[in-house]
From TrEMBL:
Annotated ranges, domain Thioredoxin: 24-140
Protein name: Thioredoxin, mitochondrial
InterPro entries: Thioredoxin, Thioredoxin-like_sf, Thioredoxin_CS, Thioredoxin_domain
GO BP, sorted A to Z: cell redox homeostasis
Length: 141
């Protein structure tokens, strides 16, 4: 779905006129580099547990309405931290083993991890002020 939307945007981008000189229709933002989808257990171990930076882990599901609200909100705030924290997205339907290991019983569940340890956690949706406080506590700001 996201690929189709990106392709539609690319195809709709003008090739002539005043907007054509601005280059590409889309790019990779710094926030995207700080957010990643976990591929499997070893990827989680490498990129989350062994991360030198603090990591916010978003356990979510495609069918979860609140997850669709929380995820983008959290990604935006992680991007604002300018690389001080990373965000890992874990789909519980694809990675049931990780959900069980980290005792995820409802989605969305968000873990704050530092040096491989869970240092904070919340379940459910939060407003931006609460999310900012969560991130600041994790970063130590």
């Amino acid at each position: 779905m996201a690929q189709r939307l990106a392709l539609q945007r690319l195809l709709a981008f003008p090739t002539r006129g005043p907007l054509a000189s601005h280059g590409r229709a889309f790019g990779t933002s710094a926030g995207r580099r700080n957010t990643f989808n976990v591929q499997d257990g070893s990827d989680f171990q490498d990129r989350v547990v062994n991360s030198p930076k603090p990591v916010v882990v978003d356990f979510h599901a495609q069918w979860c309405g609140p997850c669709k609200i929380l995820g983008p909100r959290l990604e935006k705030l992680v991007a604002k931290q300018e690389g001080k924290v990373l965000m890992a997205k874990v789909d519980i339907d694809d990675h049931t083993d990780l959900a069980i290991e980290y005792e995820v019983s409802a989605v969305p569940t968000v873990l704050a991890m530092k040096n491989g340890d869970v240092v904070d956690k919340f379940v459910g949706i939060k407003d931006e002020d609460q999310l900012e406080a969560f991130l600041k506590k994790l970063i130590g700001a």
